[in-house]
Design a protein that fits this description.
Elements lengths: L2 H9 L10 H9 L4 E3 L6 E3 L5 E3 L5 E3 L4 H26 L8 H22 L7 H17 L12 H29 L11 H47 L6 H45 L3
């Protein structure tokens, strides 16, 4: 039973079908679903199902949209709605004239990110990577913030979403390294032999260190995946756990008295979660730029 249905039943004077399952309420918000809850007791919208595609050896894949897919599309649309008008306004702006309002704030953020994150960590040729890393930051930030909206949800609390983002960054990092170092230089990032070492010593170094270097490459997307997923999942779990405590009390008077400090704690956690939403988007984008800089300057 969802929290919305339970509240509606209480408002109508109906008895609950049983005790409130706090764990089920939390998982109802955190996990993906085939439906989207509408605000203000408007019910739910069932998403289409059965979009199966046969990929041959890979099997049959269901491409039907889910709640997190819809939230990802919504986050992308929000980025387009905000940045396309700002980009056009910047093109029309007279040279030397400072932007104002929202455009000024966003331009300051973009320039800070380009200069202090992308250029600082990547070095020469960093501007070629700035569009991707900036897009990554604002896209993740939009998804994080949608998780703080009532009746919303955070797609970054889905391990599959964070893994897909990490794989995109992993491909970018490895391709950037191959282009900067050449194919032979790129192979040396895995099969490394210290200068001047030959013979059996070089062979042993390669045999011992190649698996370690290869696993080191895989740990980078793993770290990106788990860090973003775990932080967003933990924050939302804590918020709903505190809020759900109110509905676990059997007496309305006790629930009212306990609800005041619990609500205050939940609000404080929400403020902290707002900070975490910005912080985790920043860390994901910053680490991507760090990994690009490391492999481009492997020496």
């Amino acid at each position: 039973m969802s929290l919305l249905a339970w509240i509606q039943g209480q408002a109508a004077g109906a008895e609950p079908a049983g005790e409130v399952d706090l764990g089920a309420l939390i998982m109802h918000h955190l996990t993906d679903a085939r439906e989207i809850e509408l605000p203000f007791f408007l019910g739910t919208v069932q998403l289409p199902q059965g979009w199966y595609v046969n990929l041959g050896p890979l099997g049959v894949v269901d491409l039907a949209p889910t709640k997190h897919v819809v939230l990802m599309v919504l986050a992308a649309l929000l980025c387009l709605i905000v940045f396309i008008p700002l980009a056009r306004a910047a093109q029309r702006r007279e040279e030397g004239k400072a932007p104002g309002g929202l455009g000024g704030g966003m331009e300051a953020m973009v320039l800070y990110f380009r200069d202090e994150v992308v250029r600082t960590n990547i070095g020469h040729g960093a501007d070629a990577f700035a569009p991707y890393i900036l897009t990554l930051f604002f896209f993740i930030l939009s998804m994080n913030l949608l998780g703080l909206v009532p009746w919303g949800g955070s797609a970054t609390g889905n391990l599959a979403v964070t893994l897909a983002l990490a794989i995109c960054s992993f491909v970018l990092v490895e391709v950037a390294g191959m282009r900067a170092l050449g194919f032979r230089g790129y192979l040396q990032t895995v099969f490394f032999v210290p200068e001047g070492m030959t013979g059996i010593g070089a062979f042993l170094i390669v045999v011992l260190m190649a698996p370690v270097e290869f696993m080191g490459k895989l740990t980078k997307p793993f770290a990106l995946t788990v860090r973003l997923f775990a932080n967003m999942m933990a924050g939302h779990t804590l918020i709903f756990a505190l809020g759900g405590l109110i509905f676990t009390f059997g007496s309305a008077a006790v629930a009212t008295m306990a609800g005041i400090p619990i609500t205050a704690m939940a609000i404080a956690i929400m403020v902290l979660e707002l900070f975490v939403a910005f912080l985790q988007a920043f860390i994901f984008a910053m680490l991507t730029s760090v990994f690009v800089g490391l492999i481009r300057h492997a020496h």
